[in-house]
Amino acid sequence: MSYKLLCTDIDGTLLDANRELAPETVTQFKRIKDNCDIILASSRMPDAMRHLQAEVNILHSPLIAYNGGLVLAGDTVLSSTEVGFLEVKKIAELSLGTEIHVSIYNNDEWFVPGMDYWANREANNTKVVPIVRSIEATLGEYGNLNKGAHKVMCMGPAEQIAVLYDQLISQLNDDLHVYKSKDTYLEIASKRISKKSAIATLLEHRYQELSWQHIIAFGDNYNDMEMLEAVGMGVAVGNAKEEVLAMANDVTATNKEHGVALSIAKHFKE
Question: Are both 43 and 89 inside the same structural domain?
């Protein structure tokens, strides 16, 4: 099969131990990009992915942000699915009186209540500078506009995050996908989206001539599983969760061993 689309997760999959694109990965991307569109698919905001696109000259390619909550083709929004305002407000209310940091994202807006440890850590990892503003001010604006969030991220002490997780599951589980990416991190998005649904949007609006069999995808975590199962070649990096390793069509080296680059070399012959 000649693959025409490559979709890849970023953190834990594409980037190395320094959260950078390894030279080997850059070389392989540049080798195939004229014959295969490379699409980054991540829980990140768009601005946190564009510097990676620029590094391999694929700024023209679509982006899947917020795990499928926002699908962009250049400046064109192909799909946008938000957590509703009332749900965002409820998450903020449940975090009151705790040490939990609440970040609110919509498209390329990232609001933080202050540049604390968590905000600085995310800014360093994603190379994006947030807007510092109180949660009350952000909720006030969003309420007036009836605007939701593409993602809410809650970060803090593991025991407090565990309590918040249980509260969200019991109170908002019908509408929200609450993903505990680490003991200290919760990523909250609409239950109606996934990376698979985002790729389906791209196939409908941008790549009508292609099918799922023309796609190769890379991932490491639970939120990648639907995508890996749907495409023609689903590849797990060696550091992936056991369940991801078990269902993948192929397994490559770990992200720290530039597994994506090695797999491209294997599946895209000269």
Answer: no
